[in-house]
Design brief:
Blueprint lengths: L2 E5 L3 H12 L4 E5 L7 H5 L4 E4 L25 H16 L4 E4 L1 H9 L22 E7 L4 H6 L4 E6 L15 E5 L6 E5 L6 E4 L15 H15 L4
Parallel strand pairs: 1-2, 1-3, 3-4, 4-9
Antiparallel strand pairs: 5-6, 5-7, 7-8, 8-9
């Protein structure tokens, strides 16, 4: 049974991602900054990587300063360092990677892109009352994401972010596979060079808040992790 690493701030934060993987036959290994000792230890026995949501990626990693009013509590540089090291290792080894929300943004930064640090309309400002809003995203026909979920089309998903990617900030080596039709915010990224890398801006671990077709990405990840473990990635 393939083991998939989940990076997070805490085991509690990682729990819903672990549930999504384990319910589809995968095993999980939760890696958090406070318990991170070395890259070798974190990646030992791992056949896939999930970068989950959480803190904002520190702007210093893409050559910018934080916006005025962004306190240090918005960032967790130890997590940034840990995840970038694990992501680069996974890319080098051609390991399956699934980035979600912050995870998709980190993929963009890792490939040389930048982020829009703050914009309205993509999360409920009253997080205590209702942490998720809903909006449409368009998945491009012919994209890897479209093939995984079944078709390029309009889908309804949740949205919980205030940072993100637009075409002007997208890493040139990546392709936008999905976007929000009203404002052009990128909702999906993939790499032509790295066949087993997917990033989405929504949160498919909140399974009742996304189109059911988006849940097939979990099975895609587990399936490729099993093939990676078996040495069969063709």
């Amino acid at each position: 049974m393939a083991q998939i690493a989940i990076t997070a701030t805490s085991p509690r934060e990682a729990a819903p991602y672990a549930t999504a993987i384990e319910s589809r036959g995968g095993q999980t290994k939760i890696v958090v900054p406070k318990r991170f000792t070395s890259l070798d230890d974190a990646m030992e026995g791992v056949s896939g990587l999930v970068l989950c949501g959480g803190y904002d990626v520190h702007p210093s990693y893409y050559g910018q300063e934080p916006l005025d009013g962004a306190g240090t509590e918005s960032f967790y540089p130890d997590r940034d360092e840990m995840e970038l090291a694990m992501l680069r290792h996974a890319l080098e080894k051609q390991m399956p990677v699934y980035g979600i929300c912050r995870g998709m943004q980190l993929i963009n930064v890792c490939f040389g892109g930048t982020l829009l640090q703050d914009f309205p309309g993509h999360r409920n400002p009253d997080l205590e009352q209702d942490p998720s809003i809903q909006h449409q995203v368009y998945v491009s026909p012919g994209s890897k994401l479209g093939a995984i979920i079944g078709a390029g089309a309009f889908y309804r998903t949740n949205s919980l972010h205030h940072q993100g990617v637009k075409e002007a900030t997208r890493a040139p080596a990546l392709m936008a596979s999905s976007f929000q039709p009203d404002d052009g915010v990128v909702e999906g990224l993939e790499s032509p060079e790295h066949r087993w890398l997917i990033g989405v801006q929504c949160h498919p671990e909140r399974e009742t808040e996304v189109a059911k077709t988006f849940l097939t990405i979990w099975s895609w990840l587990v399936g490729w992790a099993e093939r990676y473990e078996a040495g069969d990635m063709e």
